[in-house]
């Protein structure tokens, strides 16, 4: 009885609703930190070499097959759902454990993954000699090293082959790096030079200035490039012969043998035989590869360096645009314009622009910057390249400009706030000492407001780094052949398309042909992006808090 | 010294003035740039709604020799016109001045007369001549474009795609009075009305010969039931399935001829109003719709519609009543659903069927117009008047497909059973009818935003209430940055988690997810009660305002419990598979990427926005109000509910508006977490497509300045205006609130 009254009075006091409110806060916190934890765990665990498992598995037709692979995921599924999907499920079972099993060897099986139902696994084992071979094509290979060949001759078998393999892999890696540097660097430069020559010739043609002398000069330069090219070709040819000398024969589950050219091998390791220390080293190496290497296999493997680089470049160019304009606009609104209904209106408009969907900026950028400005620029300055557009196509410059407009309100608002916080007394002191308004602003007010400006800029950068929708229209691509910055004149290629971390997540997670294989990479990319953005935001918050403290002391 | 000082002072003053002007110019420039966004969007969109323009280029006497004109045509570059004469000659003439360039003569065998003429698909330039011996000759006018010396030269020619030898249509050899032809790669059909009042149909199919690789046309002729006393119009559709036969009194018979051996009369009906004559009958591009012109100047569009019993019924779909005199000729545009009509008063009208738009009605001639041709790109027209003059006009008609009704109203599209809202902007075929209804995608936008708000609003506002009013300051210093971090999370990450992690999770643990919605609130209240009844020793260890920290394990536990119980719930209530149960028992389809997933993910994205603004509003309520209320004996909750919330309600309202605005414009989450299907279904288990995702998906592949491109800009403009309006309203409300607080 009393407990009844207790409950009623407890309800009457409204405490349950307070608890509900507290629950909302708790649920939000759980969601935020849960989400961060989810990304962190999935993103970081990917690089840890997981054990290879050898299982004997009963197929649907009752046959027992041998499989080797990694267990990627496990889930509990209601038996009924499997039954209705036509899977034989033991009577009486309510829940079935199902594994997502990466079998690799896409060239052999055609598929990377399969799902295994727990009760059909007859035997599980983890032999130490199972090898993971990361390849440049066809994804990972799981199996055992059976022989090592040099120029087609078997030189080692079994355990000896494994030892020999690791040694020879170093040699192959060096050769591969040399080939890459020639192909990407020197031949890339020659191609670039050729293209410039072609454009120069076309430009002269358009101006009717293609004289015989000019033609001869062009031909001479072309001949020189051709000669350099054929020299490089020879060098490449011998390198390729060298790198193809060795090959390794692998035996995969089921007994089939696969011969892999050494030039296709990225890395080999025996996860089941590795100690925790080995694994940590492996982990660090993989992590480094992830942030420093280029993507392989339609972005599903390798690193994301071009995406990191593209994001950073884009953000830097954007900052160059957004800072002066944002500061000038804020100075005008706060210091020069007459305060009245008009400035209030402008302020509301600027504030609201921050709420305009980013895709709208993308549409504007595509229409105005790319097609209108870029198209006209091409007509004026790059007629020799037409009809293929130079600036009349999406590129990093337009992306940066679009995002600059998008983040302009952030910078304006933050700077204005900073300007407003500078105490009157400081300005008046400066003016009283005979400084002009411009001097006061430049020497006194702006330095004091600069942390606020920094806050705004950091927030703008954080926003720009995470924004994807407008970039999809104005310059981001899934795979850019070259970085926007390289050692070919004019070094900074503002017309190039670029890769972006956020778009990389979207593209690999949703447009990739092999989503399952790419998924861990997407988590890792997401983690990197989240870490960068949270770091930027927390910096901005910290600066803002310090700023507040500072002015508090000034005001008193 | 003084002079130097003065000079220096002047320089400083000059600098000051310069700086003022520079900043003013820069500042105004930035503000103008911002305004530019709106005007640029508008600038791209406006041409959609402008009317067509036409200008007379030339008029001249009928080119070539005298004689009755059967047919007029224009070539793609609009440099050359073709006039088909009754005696088999074809005069090719320069459209600019009417000078005849070349006269070809169709290979009609000697001794035979041309007794009938019919035009096939205009884009292929096929025409058929019905001969007086029951045979027909199929010809084709083609234009070869060459560039000798970099100058464009167009050479017209006549070809015979089915051979120079006429094809037998009527085995009995009666003269043909009307003929219609349609042909494809390996099948062609010729239908004809004969002089003795019969109707025959010949289907030709290409067969490979057994002996060698040569191909021969096999023909098969049937006689159709006679339906009209006199056949004035004979139309066969490009698929060679439907045949329309009409006489000038408006009686029309609709045959199904897909089976060449057994043509079937589907329907007989009157297609013009009482007391009117049928004056023109033409296909619209694609050959599905019929355009009927009558003696009063009305044009009606008809097409077969599948009825409840799965029969095709020719249905009157739209009327155009802009012209006042009998419609003498109709010319359909080649690859759009637009057409031109010429009337007896000498006027020409330009129309579009899907948009139900009259783009232009203009007087072209003083005399009755008898023939009309439109250029393949619909940028010029050629009209012959009864006074023997030919008029050549240029047309500017870029975007006829769009009108207010086609964007926002129900439109009856070809082959649809009823008017509907459809977004389908492109297709592989040329004569596709683009469906630019913004309704399904706007609906999807609202739907996504609605479900997001359903999740976000309670969470954010309750959370803001607690944070602002009850929370311990130290905890607040953790919670507020956490929420800011939450706001800063890129939506692409939320979208990717929603699509790749949450969507399969929700699918697998559907009952768990729903039970969570019930279990969490109840569980939290129970936990609160349990805490209150703990001995004071334990209770006082935790200061007031730390309840959320206490509840975190509860929320985690309850969440885990719901997920754990999910398969069991599914077993108990939904016979083991809730999706099956939904579709079988409830008739609700289940998409993996559905509105629920979007709602949760986008709700997550919107929570911080609402939370921050609402928290500001609640926190800003003057302290003396709350203290007064508490002093009068109200409990904290009563104070919050009756005093604080009431005062802060405009702020909360504006928080909700801004949150809604953000949900409406969000792109990446909806792009990744829904199937992007533009369906009109409010079900929580179905996907959707929003304005923003639609732009992201279709913009990169839309052709610059095409109608599609401009419609996408319109979608962006709609988004822009919508969010701008919402945000401005919210901002105004907030500013007022601030003033109110400061006056309190």
Mind explaining what this structure looks like?
The complex is a heterodimer of chains A (556) and B (744). Chain A is an alpha+beta fold and 556 residues long. Chain A has three domains: 53-126; 143-273; 305-478 and 485-555, MetI-like (MetI-like fold, Orthogonal Bundle). In chain A, 62% of the residues lie in helices and 14% in strands. Chain A contains 16 helices and 13 strands. In chain A, strands 6, 7, 8, 9, 10 and 11 form a six-stranded antiparallel sheet that branches. Chain A has a five-stranded antiparallel sheet with strand order 4-3-2-1-5. The longest helix of chain A is centred in the N-terminal third of the chain and has 49 residues, at 158-206. With 744 residues, chain B is an alpha+beta fold. Chain B folds into three domains: 106-270, no CATH class; 275-422, YVTN repeat-like/Quinoprotein amine dehydrogenase (Methylamine Dehydrogenase, Chain H, 7 Propeller); 440-504 and 591-741, MetI-like (MetI-like fold, Orthogonal Bundle). Helices cover 39% and strands 27% of the residues of chain B. Chain B is built from 15 helices and 31 strands. In chain B, the strands form eight sheets. In chain B, strands 6, 7, 8, 9 and 10 form a five-stranded antiparallel sheet that branches. Chain B has a four-stranded antiparallel sheet with strand order 1-29-28-27, with no helix packed on it. Chain B has a four-stranded antiparallel sheet with strand order 2-3-4-5, with no helix packed on it. In chain B, strand 3 (80-85) and strand 4 form a beta hairpin. In chain B, helix 3 packs across helix 10 and helix 14 (691-698) packs antiparallel against helix 15. Chain B is elongated, with a radius of gyration of 36 Å. The relative contact order of chain B is 0.07. The chains are: A alpha+beta (556), B alpha+beta (744). Chains A and B meet through helix 2, strand 2, helix 3, helix 8 and helix 9 of A and helix 1, helix 3, helix 4, helix 5 and helix 6 of B.
